[in-house]
Amino acid sequence: MSRPKQICLLGATGSIGQQTLDIIRLHPDKFEVFALTANTSVQVMLRDCLEFKPSFAVMRDAKAATQLHGLLAEHGAGNIQVLNGEQAICDVASAAEVDTVMAGIVGAGGLLSSLAAAKAGKTILLANKEALVMSGQLFMQAVADNNATLLPVDSEHNAVFQCWQQAMTSQRRNEISKIYITASGGPFLDWPAEKLVNITPEQAVSHPNWSMGQKISVDSATMVNKGLELIEAHYLFNLPSKNVEVLLHPQSLVHALVEYIDGSVITHMGPHDMRVAISHTLAWPQRIVSGAPRLNLLSEQATLQFRPIDEGQFPCLKLAKAARDEGACAQIILNAANEVAVAAFLQGQINFAGIAGVISETLSKQPRVTITGVDDVLAVNKQARIIAQESIKEPALYV
Ligand code: NDP
Ligand code: MG
Questions:
Q1: What is the model's pTM?
Q2: Which fold, 5-152?
Q3: Which residue among 105, 255, 280 is best mutated to probe the pocket of ligand 1, counting the most ligand atoms within 8 A of its Cβ?
Q4: What pLDDT sits at residue 190?
Q5: Which residues sit with their C-beta closer than 6 Å to ligand 1?
């Protein structure tokens, strides 16, 4: 029997992180946790450190790390090394002992550690789509140069990968005519535009089909998530933008469709449960039990409807597509402005419609530069955050 895979779990306390631990818990013979990382969630880290006994626990926040260190010692687990800061997260993501890195940090905060795993030639299970949106070409180059293996966790991209086994490596891209990723439409599908303006954060984070972290839940409600996913697909699968489309499919049973040039369409179906995609990447190229429920195609909800998207209803999707078509710098600005706007929306500083407003303002105000390295990415990201924050201070515009 082969030795258990050594897992570094970035973003362990989040939605993706916790579901990854659910699967690891089912397979103690197959996986061992080498490191867990989080930002500030000390109590969840404490509980999971005591259960999974990693060699390292890393908190981005220094105070949280001190607290965790003390609590672990109190609980007789002082042998777990507690580190803090972004560099320490990068260090565990690239440690020699690690086979597989789950990149489950949300947002731009996951870029450097995801990239560190790529540069160290790891198997990267990529949930942190923002890393690809910010640095797609650089990221894919780092994967190729260092012989890393990149496996998509995002359900639609994982579905494409399952329908097109050579997706990540193939020279045979000319056999593919189109890929479609599906969108449920989020909680506000078919709401009239005037009703969308005053949606509350509570309404925005209650997705009808998926249970996810706050940021991606809001992203799904504005549909910027599908825009980020189009950019993600473009880089992951090395396909021209015109060959990647979104289909509205409210039931979220089909996650992607791959159309080949002979007219065959291969689709991936499954329950809307991230454990399916996570377990697929953890075990790949094998299959393991995920703990997800079975798909019941005889249930009343199992009808399959597909519709085009009304982009007028979702301005954030339109802005994301424009950034995709423009290129790397606009994609970084889009991502940064969206992160700032979503945080402001969740804190009640702007209304729901203001999210698109902040993104649009930032994209129109920020000058473009050529992106040649990670320093350029970080500089554009930083500047976009400043411009986005400034635009939020214009209360007349967004509240
Ligand atoms: P959550 O908000 O639930 O979790 C985020 C995790 O990242 C937490 O562990 C958090 O720690 C940690 N974190 C946040 N900021 C930082 C930072 N600056 N540095 C280090 N760690 C940080 O997010 P999700 O699990 O929902 O999403 C994670 C990623 O997966 C996102 O990119 C999302 O788009 C993608 N994804 C998620 C899906 C889902 O179903 N949730 C589906 C498809 C993709 P702490 O708890 O301490 O704050
Ligand atoms: Mg998705």
A1: 0.97
A2: Rossmann fold (3.40.50)
A3: 105
A4: 81
A5: 11-17, 38-41, 60, 89, 104-106, 109, 127-130, 154, 210, 212-216, 274
